[in-house]
Specification:
The complex is a heterodimer of chains A (107) and B (114).
Chain A: E1 4-7, E2 10-13, E3 19-25, E4 33-38, E5 45-49, E6 53-54, E7 62-67, E8 70-75, E9 85-90, E10 97-98, E11 102-106
Parallel strand pairs in A: 2-11
Antiparallel strand pairs in A: 1-3, 3-8, 4-5, 4-9, 5-6, 7-8, 9-10, 9-11
Chain B: E1 3-8, E2 11-12, E3 18-25, E4 34-39, E5 46-51, E6 57-59, E7 67-72, E8 77-82, E9 91-97, E10 103-104, E11 108-112
Parallel strand pairs in B: 2-11
Antiparallel strand pairs in B: 1-3, 3-8, 4-5, 4-9, 5-6, 7-8, 9-10, 9-11
The chains are: A mainly beta (107), B mainly beta (114).
Chain lengths: 107, 114
């Protein structure tokens, strides 16, 4: 299986901050990398697919970049509704795997 | 707007079989990938497996011996069966659509306890 390592595991930030979360994979996955946002008690929501494509309806302050083994999710200016847990996911391999999650908390 | 509505037993005893269903409303059923994902309380996401539009399935190797995912196209339903459950199978289970997991069901908490 492809291992996914997200960093940091948790992050404290303030409204208006620029935030970056990274995801590293154990082997190249080209651009088969997606990012999800999950709020407590809710299903995850797709934010970014194909490493850098913004899912319809997702605010443009979210962006993704990277290819191969190193990827980033950036929130350009944090809004109150962005405090949540974020997961990366690869679907390059038949066996889909997720990162362990990054919990974004209000400072 | 596609909606995925899940249902199934929420409390099981060890060694029983978990059985969940997911009905798709408001969108095309054929031609898509259908997945099941689970999330133990307070933990991360784990892919269980998928049913591909050609009719084939793929499963997480860690669960493969116990899992069956099937589809009833006449009912727009996806089903999950997980046999011989233990407390480690306690989780919220989600059905999802797409290779990029665009659409999600509401989630079903399944608790395994004697």
């Amino acid at each position: 299986d492809i291992q996914m390592t997200q960093s940091p595991s948790s992050l404290s930030a303030s409204v208006g901050d620029r935030v970056t979360i990274t995801c590293r994979t154990s082997q190249s996955i080209r651009d088969y990398l997606n990012w999800y946002q999950q709020k407590p008690g809710k299903a995850p929501k797709l934010l970014i697919y194909g490493a850098s494509s913004l899912q319809s309806g997702v605010p443009s302050r979210f962006s993704g970049s990277g290819s191969g083994t190193d990827f980033t999710l950036t929130i350009s200016s944090l809004q109150p509704e962005d405090f949540a847990t974020y997961y990366c996911q690869q679907n390059y391999n038949i066996v889909v795997t997720f990162g362990q999650g990054t919990r974004l908390e209000m400072k | 707007q596609v909606q995925l509505q899940q249902w199934g037993a929420g409390l099981l005893k060890p060694s029983e079989t978990l059985s969940l269903n997911c009905t798709v409303y408001g969108g095309s059923f054929s031609g898509h990938y259908w997945n099941w994902i689970r999330q133990p309380p307070g933990k991360g996401l784990e892919w269980i497996g998928e049913f591909k539009h050609g009719g084939s399935t793929n499963y997480n190797p860690s669960l493969k011996s116990r899992v069956t995912i099937s589809v009833d196209m006449s009912k727009n339903e996806i089903s999950l069966k997980l046999s011989s459950v233990t407390a480690a199978d306690t989780a919220v289970y989600y059905c999802t659509r797409g290779g990029n997991l665009v659409d999600w069901g509401q989630g079903t908490l399944v608790t395994v306890s004697s």
